[in-house]
Write the structure tokens for this entry.
Amino acid sequence: MKVVRFHAPGDVRVEDAPEPTPGPGEVRIRVRNCSTCGTDVKIWRFGHHHIDPPRVMGHEIAGEIVEIGAEVTGWQPGDRVQVIAAIPCGRCDQCRRGRMTVCPNQESIGYHYEGGFAQYMVVPAKVLAVDGLNRIPDGVSFAEASVAEPLACVLNGQELARVGEGDDVVVIGSGPIGCLHVRLARARGAARVTLVDLNRDRLDLAAALVAPDATVCAAETDPVDAVLKVTDGAGADVVITAAASGAAQEQALQMVGRQGRISFFGGLPKDRPVIAVDANLVHYRELTIVGANGSSPAHNKAALQLIASGAVPVADLITDRLPLERALDAFDIVSRGAGIKVTIEP
Ligand SMILES: [Zn+2]
Ligand SMILES: [Zn+2]
């Protein structure tokens, strides 16, 4: 079978590999869609400390079961499934307290285990053990189901930031994650959503799809001034930074209103993780700053339901479909911000 394998930074190859066989507690799937995200581009360029190469990449996975390992019950060949990306251990104190996204023993598909940029893939027993293999609801395509993983992460972020009815929400970053944040904020009852990006082309592309109430191109207009203007000086209830930018995080603190919540959804580059925070703003305005680290198996199930019910449509966000052989072209589209969701169809 064909796979997309990471060998070293800058060295990702489409090559042949033997078809894997499922061990006890595992299933083998025929991958139908594995979507790409910014992380794939980062791995391609810089590698990742959790990847011991060579490793098949890809972690936004939907496919069809073709073979069942020993001791697996409840599944059969032909079942359509979505696979979680982050695998909590299910046993530690954090997991037992329901905080699976911060499990210190977390492992990931495409990092510790072979990923989904492949014709076939074995779903590790650890995934099934934490209920991380999800049935794709009828009416949801494989391509849409592959977007459940990033949507699950977005859902985790908005739960932590308590996005809800009547909120004035600002999303900084108009890539696929930013688009999902806009759609989910609407589904959760936000009264107004403003989308901000430095890149005018990408902002226009995203805005045409997700129709925010206002857009701000941060290269043309000061985004803090713009948000204060839109909110009549009050500031936003929630600001979500879906961009790897310390400047965006600092701006978020200046455009958020009283008792506002700020989600540092996107992480910062490893060598520049420090920003300036006016602690008195946080103190007097009773601000909440939250992070977001992936998603739990339950978030993935909820995301599939949000897609199935139509609350968060994702089909139109899939702008590019490429065969496995063109994975590097797909990474290139993602790195240029030329598409929204770019999916691989092995
Ligand atoms: Zn991802
Ligand atoms: Zn754990």
User: Anything to note?
Assistant: The pocket of zinc ion (ligand 1) is lined by residues 37, 39, 59-60, 150 (CB under 6 Å).
